[in-house]
Amino acid sequence: MCTLEKRGDLFLLTLTGDDEHGFHPDMISSVLSLLEQAKSQSTRGSVLVTTAHGKFFSNGFDLAWAQSAGSQTGTIDRMHQMVKSFKPVIAALFDLPMPTIAALNGHAAASGLMFALSHDYVFMRKDRGVLYMSEVDIGLPLPDYFSAMFVAKIGTSIARREMLLSGKKIKGEEAVALGIVDSAAHDSAEGVVEATVSLAESLAAKKWNGEVYASIRKSLYPEVCRMLSLTDKISATP
């Protein structure tokens, strides 16, 4: 489902396989465990890069798993389970004591897009991949911490409308223009990963104090962090 590789100061988290990388309980548990591993092994200069194999970065919650419950009540219960269990993954990224970069190899939809936006930087491919919030199309309400994330991370009401109220599938260059991602100048999955690794290496060279970095990150997004039950407490010396 996913792997974590350490390359010097860099951690490379990869969603593996060529499927849609849907966030079901086993996937959520695996990602959370690897983020906790990266945190425990972090040092000054650590950086996380997250990517995936195949056509999708992540297509969001595993709706097929939810629907396999066999009843409407069971499906709803499983959806609530995924929304609740996914929240600590987002909290872990906000609390991670290092810069974080998402390298989108392909489509990022719904909670998969939420996962990407929880990183400090987001790079897309130019030739392939869209950002898509499917909730308005399939009739699902937006969890409160998702809403807070989009207000915090997507700076204009026009961009949020296009993303959340129009159900628009947004390609790389438009995503850059709307201020949703940082870069979309890459013609392959390998190219986008190379670009993010290059950025990661330049950030790692700064040898920042990770706890201070995480504290500043959390201070920038107080409403998101409140919903994630994260506090901004740090005691550090230069």
Automatic annotation (TrEMBL):
Under the cellular component aspect of Gene Ontology, which terms does the record hold?
cytosol; nucleus; peroxisome
* Keywords, comma-separated and alphabetical: Fatty acid metabolism, Isomerase, Lipid metabolism
Q: Which Gene3D superfamilies match?
A: 2-enoyl-CoA Hydratase, Chain A, domain 1 (3.90.226.10)
Which family does the entry's similarity section mention? Belongs to the enoyl-CoA hydratase/isomerase family.
Q: PANTHER family annotated for this entry?
A: ENOYL-COA DELTA ISOMERASE 3, ENOYL-COA HYDRATASE-RELATED
The keyword Isomerase appears for this protein: yes
Provide the protein name.
Delta(3)-Delta(2)-enoyl-CoA isomerase
GO biological-process terms attached to the record: fatty acid beta-oxidation
Instruction: List the taxonomic lineage.
Output: Eukaryota, Viridiplantae, Streptophyta, Embryophyta, Tracheophyta
